[in-house]
């Protein structure tokens, strides 16, 4: 299912050419980005791929969206966001959908690392676990009673044991699995962080399955060759002047890996 069909950057300019985020995308607003079930925003550091995801999250008002600046008097990110355009997809009857599905979210690499650290710290883990129960409608009295119960102690021991049993990468894969629900849009910012190459491929295969069978759509910012080569994705190169769509093996970062191992080919023989 495709919930987000298209996106176009603001083509307006401001007097100061260095104002964020106008300077990041200067000259790149010529064409629309057309999304597939999985779409990758590829680019080197400072290419704007994370900024573009956050613009989308703010435009769509989905969980995980962030303010781009801690300065409340800086209007430029909100201004730029409002100047960008997007189009939604169609339902099974060919009608344009009216909104992004509930449960959609913007997931950043630091969100995953925070969840891992939260699991590693018992006090923080306990408070986070109680907070989840509060979100489910438990009263303060119910939470206080549960906090001092043997059930809470058992649940904490189980979660701490799980963290000790698995590496950060395996825990990250489990967190992604917990985050993903059916029929939703997910914006993923560098999900490969903390994952080994093998686990990056496992995650990519998991995302392929979710898009094919669970009705999920993904927009992913990455420059990992393992994700780029495994995901069944449409790829846009933010390093190119016109945000060109391209094949994964044409990308500079992937070619760098290829050339590096080609130089050391004899060592593998």
Automatic annotation (TrEMBL):
Record domain AAA+ ATPase: where: 35-241
UniProt xrefs under Gene3D superfamilies? P-loop containing nucleotide triphosphate hydrolases
Tree of life domain: Bacteria
Matches recorded under Pfam families: AAA_21
**InterPro entries linked:** AAA+_ATPase (IPR003593), ATPase_AAA_core (IPR003959), Bact_Antivir_Def_Nuclease (IPR051396), P-loop_NTPase (IPR027417)
Provide the protein name. Answer: AAA family ATPase
């Amino acid at each position: 299912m495709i919930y987000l069909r298209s996106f176009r950057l603001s083509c307006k300019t401001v007097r100061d050419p260095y104002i964020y985020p106008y300077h990041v995308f200067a000259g790149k607003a010529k064409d629309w980005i057309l999304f597939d079930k999985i779409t990758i925003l590829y680019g080197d550091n400072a290419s704007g791929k994370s900024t573009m995801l956050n613009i989308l999250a703010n435009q769509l008002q989905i969980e995980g969206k962030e303010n781009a600046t801690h300065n409340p008097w800086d209007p430029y990110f909100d201004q730029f966001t409002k100047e960008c355009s997007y189009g939604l997809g169609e339902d099974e009857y060919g009608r344009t959908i009216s909104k992004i599905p509930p449960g959609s979210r913007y997931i950043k690499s630091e969100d995953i690392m925070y969840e891992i650290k939260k699991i590693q710290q018992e006090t923080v883990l306990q408070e986070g676990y109680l907070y989840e129960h509060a979100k489910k409608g438990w009263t303060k009295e119910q939470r206080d009673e549960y906090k001092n119960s043997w059930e809470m102690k058992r649940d904490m021991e189980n979660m701490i044991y799980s963290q000790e049993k698995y590496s950060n990468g395996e825990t990250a894969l489990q967190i992604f699995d917990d985050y993903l629900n059916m029929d939703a849009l997910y914006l993923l910012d560098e999900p490969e962080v903390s994952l080994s190459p093998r686990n990056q491929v496992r995650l990519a295969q998991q995302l392929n399955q979710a898009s094919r069978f669970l009705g999920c759509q993904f927009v992913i910012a990455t420059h990992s060759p393992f994700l780029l080569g495994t995901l069944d994705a449409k790829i846009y190169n933010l390093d190119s002047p016109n945000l060109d769509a391209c094949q994964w093996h044409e990308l500079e970062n992937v070619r760098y890996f290829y050339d590096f191992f080609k130089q050391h080919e004899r060592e593998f023989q």
